[in-house]
Specification:
This protein has helices at about 10-30, 35-65, 65-75, 95-100, 100-120, 120-135, 145-160, 170-200. The chain is an all-alpha fold. Helix 1 (about 10-30) runs antiparallel to helix 2 (about 35-65), helix 5 (about 100-120) runs antiparallel to helix 8 (about 170-200) and helix 7 packs antiparallel against helix 8 (about 170-200).
Length: about 220
């Protein structure tokens, strides 16, 4: 796999994920007799669809200078050391948690917007940590929601580390707000994967690396 470019960390991360998930699509399909193909294809399509956001974000960081590019790069983790493609114990998400997703998303998006207006990354991180603690009740499910929340919390951590006048702040706030928009799509992918996860096929759970979100 090609080495990452220091100037394009976001799109390089997406390309790495696309290549890996295209490779794994056939393996998942063989394990599931084709039942996972729709999930894998939608996951890959979502990664392709995010590339224009990555290009815009990278151009903004490049214009802002090397420190902004480094701050952006700190938001991403490599797609390595994923669990193997194999069956696992069946899992399910609590019904109450599934039913509460819409209100939880609205509350979280509101908290991110308020934190953005106040330039308060600690508030964004606290709101996202609350969501992640709730998701801990559903291990192996709601994986895309968890992945985006972990990513958002990491962005908030990087924001906390920046000085008030660093130009990267505006770029990372815009990225964080994109996470709040994307989490609604995450639920579509999670709902498609859940019947498979209930049957012991850990699609998504074995495709999305855990993101350290306390830096």
């Amino acid at each position: 796999m090609a080495a990452r470019s220091h100037a394009a960390p976001f799109s390089d991360h997406l390309r790495e994920a696309i290549a890996l998930n295209r490779e794994r699509l056939g393996q998942w399909s063989a394990l599931s007799q084709g039942r996972t193909r729709a999930v894998s294809r939608l996951l890959i399509a979502s990664e392709y669809a995010t590339l224009p956001v990555a290009w815009w974000t990278e151009r903004a960081a490049q214009r802002a200078g090397a420190a902004a590019v480094a701050a952006l790069a700190a938001c991403f983790v490599p797609m390595r050391n994923l669990p193997p493609i194999q069956r696992s114990a069946p899992v399910d998400a609590p019904h109450s948690l599934l039913q509460a997703r819409r209100s939880a998303t609205a509350a979280w998006a509101g908290a991110i917007s308020a934190a953005t207006r106040a330039d308060a990354p600690q508030d964004a991180h606290a709101a996202t940590a609350t969501m992640l603690r709730t998701l801990a009740a559903a291990p192996g499910t709601l994986c895309m929601r968890r992945h985006l929340a972990e990513s958002a919390a990491r962005v908030a951590c990087v924001l906390r580390s920046l000085n008030a006048r660093e130009p990267a702040r505006a770029i990372l706030w815009a990225l964080l707000e994109r996470h709040a928009l994307g989490i609604r799509f995450a639920d579509v992918l999670d709902d498609l994967a859940l019947p498979l996860q209930r049957d012991g096929i850990p699609i998504l759970a074995h495709d999305l690396p855990p993101i350290p979100w306390e830096l």
